[in-house]
Design a protein that fits this description.
Layout: H1 2-7, H2 18-38, E1 40-42, E2 47-51, H3 54-68, H4 73-83, E3 92-99, H5 104-113, E4 121-125, E5 129-132, E6 134-135, E7 148-154, H6 157-164, E8 169-175, E9 178-183, H7 186-198
Antiparallel strand pairs: 1-2, 2-3, 3-7, 4-5, 4-8, 6-7, 8-9
Helix pairs in contact: 2-3, 3-4
Length: about 200
C-alpha cells in the first residue's frame, strides 16, 4: 500500500499561498467541515472515526501551513507529502480515530487500558466479510495508546461491490475495555464510495 500512497499526493497546484488561503479560508473551511461531518462517526462514548478524503486532507495541509506560517517551497512540499498519507486509495479507506476523555486525571489511565486496540477494530460489510483496521505502527506504544490514530481499511473487490450495491456496513470494536459498534449512515456510505472512486484522480 505504501507505493500507491506515495504516488497519490495532493497536487502542489491545489495548495494556496498563505495570503490567498486567508482570503478564502471561511469558504474552504465550511466545505471541509461539511465533508468531515458526512464522514464522521461516534464510536462509543469516547471515540470518533472520521474518514478522510481529498477535501479534508487539503484543508489540513492549508491549516498547518497557516498555523506554522510555512511558505518555503521545500517545507510546503514536506507538509503535502506528510498529510497525503491520509488520502484514501482506490481500494483502501483512510480515517482518523480520536479518543477523547474529558477528565484529565483519568485520561492516561484510559489510554493505558486501550493498549492493543489495533487488534480489535474492524469494518464489517454485510454479506462481504470484514476488513481489519491497519494502524500506523509509529503511533503505537507498549504502555499506552495515542489519543489520535491514523487507520486504514483495505477493501477487496467483493467488499467494494457490496458497498456499491447498497450493503450496510458497521464499525466494530471488540476490545475488552472498549467494546462498541456503530452503523455507517447512508450518507457516509455514499461519501466513502465517492472517495474510493476519485482516490487516484
Amino acid at each position: 500500500m505504501s507505493t500507491e500512497r506515495r504516488t497519490n499526493l495532493i497536487p502542489r497546484s491545489e495548495i494556496l499561498d498563505l495570503g490567498e488561503y486567508e482570503r478564502n479560508r471561511d469558504s474552504i473551511r465550511a466545505g471541509a467541515m461539511r465533508a468531515r461531518t458526512m464522514r464522521r462517526l461516534e464510536l462509543g462514548p469516547n471515540a470518533t472515526v472520521a474518514f478522510e478524503n481529498r477535501e479534508t486532507v487539503r484543508y489540513q495541509i492549508q491549516e498547518m501551513l497557516r498555523a506554522e506560517r510555512i511558505a518555503k517551497e521545500a517545507e510546503v512540499q514536506h507538509e503535502i507529502e506528510t498529510y497525503s498519507d491520509l488520502l484514501p486509495t482506490s481500494d483502501t479507506l483512510s480515517a482518523t480515530l480520536m479518543f477523547e476523555f474529558p477528565d484529565e486525571q483519568t485520561r492516561a489511565v484510559h489510554l493505558r487500558d486501550l493498549v492493543g486496540f489495533e487488534d480489535h477494530l474492524r469494518l464489517e460489510i454485510n454479506g462481504a466479510g470484514t476488513s481489519k483496521a491497519w494502524f500506523d505502527r509509529r503511533q503505537l506504544d507498549a504502555d499506552r495508546i495515542s489519543a489520535v490514530q491514523f487507520v486504514r481499511f483495505a477493501l477487496d473487490e467483493r467488499q467494494r461491490r457490496a458497498l456499491e450495491s447498497g450493503a450496510t456496513a458497521r464499525l466494530t470494536s471488540d476490545h475488552p475495555k472498549y467494546a462498541c459498534s456503530v452503523d455507517l449512515p447512508e450518507q457516509t456510505r455514499r461519501g466513502i464510495l465517492a472517495d474510493l472512486g476519485t482516490a487516484d484522480g
